[in-house]
Design a protein that fits this description.
Dna Ligase, domain 1, 14 helices, seven-stranded antiparallel beta sheet, single chain, Alpha-Beta Plaits, alpha+beta, 519 residues
Amino acid sequence: MTPAPAGCADASTASTVSTAGIACILFPHVRAQIELARRPELAERPIVIVERPGDRPNSRRRVVDVLPALAPISSGMTPEQVLSQVPEAVIVEADEPGYQREFEQVLAALDEVSDRVEGAELGVVYVGLDGLAAMHGGEAPMLDALLQAVPSQFGPRIGVAPGQPGGKFAAFVAARTRESAGVSRVGADAAGFLAPLPISLLPADLAAPDLLDDLQRLGLHRLGDIAAQDGAALLDRFGRDGRRIWELARGIDPRPLRPRMDAESVSETLALPSVAVALDVLRVAVETLLARLCAQARLQGRRAGAAVIACTLEDAPDWQRMWERAVHFKGGIGSGAESRRRAAQIIMQRLERDPPPAPVEAMTITLSEISGASGLQLSLFPDARVEREQRLLTVERELSARLGGRPALHRLVKAAPWHPAPELRMLQVPIDPAASDSLRPLAQPSAIEVREGPGQEPAAIRVNDQWQPVARIEDRWTFDLWWRPTPMSRQYYQITQRNGQTQILYRDEHQSAWYQQSA
């Protein structure tokens, strides 16, 4: 950590410095801190956060955070490199959607302190301060409110700088150079504050290794060295990046504060039959949810640029129960059938590359980054498939109205034709995307009373309050999915009653209960 330079004063010793301007709040090691809060048992061991498989297709996973700071470990290393140097390290796969959810809660709390809050990136927040001290009854209460809005586990470090000309960069550096939680403030001379600091503190989008190497070869090791150069010469040599670096080094940062806006989004949730483990079942769920979303009036004539797929996992710890992945749609997706199919294909490619680690009980899809217009071009030729779907939808809604709102027409979808449990092979999906019905399995079993023989085989079944003897057992088979979080173990019997009727029964070995399997 770079020590705070002379131009930066701790809040406790600089009460006379004006708080008008901008604050930057940093959360060091935010990913690792969130994991530590979820799993306190890791407190005594080094935590290394690495990218999940599929976060960057066709790339090796890299370290994104470490806690505590380990000298041999740095961001960008592979898990193998980490374990070769620190064998006791705990490798944790990054949960970026979960981290972002936690971060959004902090931003929402800061919204109660200021109406000008910008979440620049995970763990970096800018807050507008002009007029804020008066609202909170003074500078000290205002700074306390900022600190109190952030959970103490994050160890927030706050830098305060004049709004102009130092702006965001000076506030960021003031926070970045603190060695512990608290507040540091920059005086009126932002350039003097920045001058002794290393060029590695430049924003990440500028401080690429090649650019830093070029600057150091020119003898420019500190921000003051850059500030002393001719801005036009740096522009000629490094282009716009050179000009921007020169301005930042001189304490000039024209970037405006971009307050958060309520992001418009639409969501739909679907409970899955039993617990889904097959990708084919998830595909049906994705297609059904997208159809429902695109049927919402809020999405008509508009486009969505991103989606979050959230799955509730079976028998997972609370901190792992919600599994999420995000996808982005290049050019956005509209509410039309073809656009919807493209979105389903993109989402399934993501799920096939990085599937949920456990059976799924429910799925939610949230579409966001919604823009105002769909930009779809009308076709001169009618689409026969679309016309057929529209006719079926019209008939379905007429029939549903006569049935009191219950769906009348469904389509059958092969979900997992290979599955040993018949009720998971085919799913029944309402034709109307606006229907609230969940996916329904076919061949759903029903409970039945059975008298067992000496080998737990069916000897008689109860039908209409009367016991009917089993004449003979025609066939028997079994399967045992013991590895599932909720094991499924069944002993099947195809029986013939004395009246000649045949049925398929099975005994659930885990429940010690009998069921009649529909055909």
